[in-house]
Design goal:
The chain has helices at 2-8, 18-70, 96-111, 116-124, 129-141, 149-162, 173-187, 194-200, 202-218, 222-236, 348-351, 395-402, 409-419, 429-443, 450-456, 468-477; strands spanning 78-79, 82-83, 239-240, 245-246, 251-252, 259-260, 265-266, 271-272, 277-279, 291-292, 297-298, 303-305, 309-310, 315-316, 321-322, 330-333, 338-343, 359-361, 364-365, 372-373, 392-393, 427-428. The chain has 488 residues and is an alpha/beta fold. The chain has a seven-stranded mixed β-sheet. It has a five-stranded parallel β-sheet with strand order 3-6-9-12-15. A hairpin with a 6-residue loop joins strand 19 (364-365) and strand 20 (372-373). Helix 3 packs across helix 8 (194-200). The longest helix has 53 residues, at 18-70. The protein is elongated, with a radius of gyration of 37 Å. The relative contact order is 0.04.
């Protein structure tokens, strides 16, 4: 004890009761030492926590600038004599599309230090496009249903590994993802490459999440599919029912506000812009949503309601409200939408003619001086016009004439479009006589039988094709024939 007292302070003169006071003072000194050490440790930890991020950012900038100044090859650059591993060579893959994805991701890694960790986690550490998609979508859906990122990755990898056929399509979710990725790169001028679409385009990500949810829906795991639908709608602003069937090569551009119902079907190579609604028109269950053909362009904020069809190669203008079916290769605009012409291009969904410049509009009505545009409505019921007041054949009438010979409505409409060479939404006598048989043979081979030729040929009587004057002359010469529609 004397030695300890000497070490901590000068010698002291003890008085009565001094030993007791010294013990109390020693205890206080020990307590003060503990407090001082604790405060010093806390201050040091606070300083390190505050300074460490700044030092880390400073050295990252130093290393990056040194690498760019000294070279950014596989050996890395130099900064104050230290070698740093800056550049990352692109991994290789047997899949050409994913190989390009890896190459683009390596460029992002090498030129943007702030995105290195996320790029490596999302793409560079994976060997297949499916694995990369599982990682990206799991990060977006993390927390859905209380599940972690690893749980979703395992689930998505399992779905991709099943190679389940997408209902209504010949491809698996992985194969359809490749078609979708190629479509984005081809049609979206804002997309710089496949890695850009994979990482930063929410329309593509939302579509791939739907394909996984659709596979789970088909496998009977409907609850988790619906949970994914909810999370996707919250994260991306895209609400697609898991049961909806979307074909390959689909581009959902911008994607915000897109709604697609349960029984909706969308064909191949279609393009859908933001705000589009493919919904039902009532509360009845069953098949109640639109059926979109192949190669269709649907403009921004267009609304298609009910169990109606949009034919192959058709275009729907922005903001239109479609309540009735649209024939193939037709262009419809307005509220409610009306067919205003035919599409000029061979591939409406891939051409992306949003301004509807490539449209053959119908002719004019009235005098040529007034130039009043004729916005023909293909759904107009021309049967209301008496036969004595018109000299043409409507689309509905052609359906009636061809139906007994086994021609469907779609085939009859296709024949009508071939015969309507003047683009006036009607087939007059000259157009019909000139090429009706060739049109029938082209659309539905083998159905142009002898009975059809007898009823529709040159020698047949077709009163609805006759003008008023020609019809009067015909019945004046053939008094026994009687007026059209009268049975003898």
């Amino acid at each position: 004890m004397p030695l300890l007292l000497t070490a901590v302070g000068p010698p002291r003169v003890y008085t009565p009761g001094a030993r007791r006071d010294e013990a109390a003072a020693g205890m206080s000194a020990s307590t003060r030492s503990v407090v001082v050490v604790s405060l010093a440790t806390s201050a040091l930890w606070t300083a390190v926590s505050f300074i460490a991020p700044k030092l880390r950012a400073h050295w990252c900038t130093k290393l990056s600038s040194g690498a760019h100044s000294e070279g950014s090859g596989a050996d890395g650059g130099k900064c104050k004599g230290r070698k740093v591993s800056n550049a990352k060579p692109a991994p290789t893959s047997d899949d050409p599309l994913f190989h390009q994805v890896l190459k683009d991701a390596a460029d992002i890694y090498n030129h943007e230090p702030a995105l290195r960790a996320s790029t490596r986690r999302a793409i560079l550490r994976h060997r297949t496009l499916e694995n990369a998609l599982s990682s990206i979508l799991a990060d977006k859906l993390c927390g859905c249903g209380g599940h972690s990122n690893h749980t979703w990755v395992a689930l998505f990898d399992e779905v991709y590994a099943m190679h389940a056929k997408y209902r209504g399509s010949e491809g698996t979710p992985g194969a359809l993802a490749r078609l979708d990725l190629a479509a984005v790169c081809d049609r979206d001028p804002a997309c710089s490459g496949p890695a850009h679409a994979l990482l930063y385009l929410k329309g593509f990500q939302a579509l791939q999440a739907h394909r996984l949810a659709h596979a789970l829906w088909g496998a009977g795991r409907r609850t988790v599919a619906l949970a994914m639908q909810l999370k996707v709608s919250e994260v991306f602003g895209v609400d697609v029912h898991p049961a909806a069937r979307l074909g390959g090569g689909l581009l959902i551009d911008h994607a915000s506000g897109v709604v697609i119902g349960e029984t909706c079907v969308v064909g191949r190579d279609c393009t859908i812009l933001q705000g589009v609604t493919l919904g039902a028109s009532g509360k009845d269950r069953g098949d109640r949503h639109p059926k979109i053909g192949n190669d269709v362009l649907i403009g921004a904020h267009a609304v298609i309601l009910g169990n109606v069809s949009v034919g192959d190669g058709a275009k729907v203008g922005a903001g239109s409200v479609v309540l009735k079916s649209i024939p193939p290769a037709a262009t419809a605009v307005g509220v409610p939408a009306r067919v205003v012409g035919r599409t000029q291009e061979a591939s409406a969904g891939k051409t992306m003619d949003h301004a509807l410049h490539m449209v053959d509009t119908f002719g004019y009505v009235g005098s040529t001086k007034s130039k009043q545009p004729l916005w023909h409505d293909l759904w107009a019921n021309t049967m209301d016009v008496g036969l004595d007041e018109k000299g043409f054949l409507s689309r509905e009438e052609l359906r009636v004439r061809l139906q007994p010979f086994g021609c469907s409505e779609a085939e009859s409409d296709a024949v009508f479009w071939r015969l309507d060479t003047s683009l006036d939404n009607r087939v007059d006598e000259n157009e019909f006589r000139a090429s009706w048989e060739a049109a029938v043979e082209a659309v539905c081979p083998g159905k142009a039988c002898a009975q059809m030729r007898a009823e529709l040929g040159h020698d047949a009587i077709n009163p609805e094709l006759m003008s008023v004057k020609k019809k009067a002359d015909f019945f004046s010469k053939n008094t026994n024939a009687g007026p059209p529609g009268q049975k003898k």
